[in-house]
Write a structure and sequence with these properties.
Layout lengths: L2 H20 L16 H19 L6 H5 L5 H29 L1 H15 L5 H22 L10 H4 L2
Helix pairs in contact: 1-2, 4-5, 5-6
Length: 161
């Protein structure tokens, strides 16, 4: 099994767990004829399942870099090529755990700024500026316009009306 197919199988497992948990969302305020709160996880699950199946069925041909890396032990090649990918997963998990303490705005700015750097943005001030604009914009959209509570963390005394 190639690396891409292995990642597709892992993706299918994660999607299955996500949809299963999404179907457990209680529909307290659901109206007749209106989709309940579990519709979003189901739609997202269908799209992600299609993407994972596409990767599994059509994994593509190995790149020149993968073909030439056959002389390097397999585990070293994976770590050298994919360290950004694994670091991004570690950062996402840290984001989930730090969100209640630091708050949505601070965690999102830090996460997006680091992601921009890891994805190749060389100008650090551009990454930070975009991270600030998007994080504050999303906060204003959800917390103020849609009245959805987001974790405030250490900014709770400053941003609560």
């Amino acid at each position: 099994m190639t690396r891409v197919r292995f990642e597709a199988v892992i993706m299918l497992c994660i999607v299955g767990f996500y949809v299963w948990e999404g179907l457990k969302i209680p529909a307290y305020y659901s109206l007749p004829g209106v989709p309940g709160p579990s519709i979003f996880p189901v739609i997202l699950g269908v799209v992600m399942t299609a993407a994972a199946l596409w990767l599994f069925i059509f994994p593509g041909s190995p790149s020149r870099k993968e073909k030439s890396a056959s002389a390097v032990p397999r585990w070293q090649g994976v770590l050298q090529d994919s360290w950004r990918f694994y670091l991004m997963w570690v950062l996402l998990i840290a984001y989930v755990f730090l969100l209640p303490f630091l708050g949505f705005i601070i965690c999102s700015i830090a996460l997006l700024a680091v992601f921009f750097f890891l994805l190749g943005e060389k100008r650090w001030y551009i990454g930070i500026l975009i991270a600030c604009v998007f994080s504050i914009g999303i906060y204003l959209l959800f917390a103020r316009a849609l009245q959805i509570n987001l974790p405030m963390g250490i900014l709770e005394g400053i941003l609560k009306p």
